[in-house]
Amino acid sequence: MPTLEEEIRRLMTEGTAGLHAAPDLMGRVVRSTRERRRRIRIAAAAASVAASVVATPAVAFFTVGTTPTAVERSTFTTAPEPPAIDDTPSMPSAPPSLGDLGDGREFGRMKVGYLPDGLEWSGRSADWGDTYHVSYVYRGDDKGSYRVVITVYEGSAVEEVERRIAAYRDEADGEAVTVGGRSGYLVVQHVGEDGMKGTPTLFLRTSDSQWAEIGFSPVYAEEYSGTEAVDAELLRIGRGLTSTM
Amino acid sequence: MSDLEHDFGAFVAARATSLLRVAYLACGDATEAEDLLQTALERTYRKWDRVARYDNPDAYVRRVIVNAAINRARRRAILTIIPMHSPPETAVRAGDPDLFQVLMGALRALPPRQRAVIVLRYWEDLTETQTAEVLGCSVGTVKSQASKAMAKLRSALGRETLEGAITDAHA
Question: Does the keyword section mention Membrane (chain A) (predicted)?
């Protein structure tokens, strides 16, 4: 009698025998890659023009990409390859921000009691109503980057967090923790498709109807001596969070 | 055609079908598998000058495919755009002519990482250590995930019933 493993292997082999890669696959890959590079170069050129011609009306800005000038073409050759584009569907529009948060230590219905040395509010935040977040960076970091991001979930959005934690728990991914008497979950999320290490994250229940998600960027996590040091710092930040609900 | 394109073309011609099968088993949908494969190959092509120097470029593409399949499945679960597949409600009938579809149904019902472990261990014949490297987790996690997945497959398929069906099919 074959083992279950052997039968699974046999069924997989027989069941996929009829699958064959499309003959035009190579062509599609090459065309798609070229198209992607073209879009990136046009976007880079448009951004470059927008930055140098501050007073240019928006309508002129958008017409640049279709008929590039010699100056723009020279910009194309120097445009750096950006990081791999994730296939996450883009948001329909940018959400409103939480406004001027001062030092960023209090936002929405959350107070931040501890931040690692050198980090300050990035000046950016987003507010979707029952979900909002704030990010922290080193002074001088690139605009748009982050070191630490704190996302707060309230009301019905809490269900989303609990679903995600349940999924991690089901896969034995991450571990449950207790932070100052509050329940939480430590996990490395979003394991990179290109071999990146992912985002060390602490989920923390800050009140009956509120969760916080504290995430380190993979780049920032590398500043620490290892996983334990990263987790300790996440827990320290978590311990300092106070709900004002 | 440049040397780079020529080399990459040879790799695609030799390996694309095998990689498509990995993608299909990892995601459970033929159309999504083609999309996963194309996306993975595009990423590979952009880095081909580096990836081509690896001992086994296959492993790189496989890693992209499997992790992309996991991420997409998780995203779907989070966004609840597509309802999760449910395990078969009835046990496999003896003599079921399409055991593979039963297996795929059970595979789809697994959490994405457990499904990936099964595909890598039993389709790709990777060791536990190699599987852990692909998934970016510990060998212990691979063991526990494989154990849980096998228990679910055994339960969902009904090992005794499955064995009966296999015997009938072979008769």
Answer: yes
By Cβ distance, the residue of A88, A171, A191 closest to B136 is: A191
For residues A54 and A153, membership in a common domain is answered with: no
CATH number attached to the domain at B1-84: 1.10.1740
Of A1, A11, A84, the CB nearest to B163: A1
My answer on whether A66 and A131 are in the same domain is no
CATH number of B87-171: 1.10.10.10
The total of structural domains in chain A comes to 2
Instruction: Give residue A23's domain range.
Output: 19-76
pLDDT score of A64: 33
ipTM: 0.74
- Position A45 pLDDT exceeds 90: no
The pLDDT, as a whole number, for residue A91 is: 39
Taking CB atoms and an 8 Å limit, are A170 and B111 in contact across chains? yes
Chain B residues in contact with A87 by the CB 8 A cut-off are 39, 68, 72
CATH 1.10.10.10 positions along chain B are: 87-171
Q: Are residues A39 and A149 in the same domain?
A: no
User: Where in chain B are all domains bearing CATH 1.10.1740?
Assistant: 1-84
Is residue A117, in this structure, part of any structural domain at all? Answer: yes
pLDDT reading at A76 higher than 60: no
- Measured CA to CA, the distance from residue B16 to residue B9 in angstroms comes to 10
Closest chain A residue to the Cα of B5, Cα to Cα: A30
Please indicate whether, in this complex, the C-beta atoms of B136 and A197 are within 8 angstroms of each other: yes
The string of pLDDT tens digits covering residues B121-160 is 888 888 888 888 787 777 888 888 888 888 888 877 765 4
Closest in B12, B100, B135 to A14, CB measured = B100
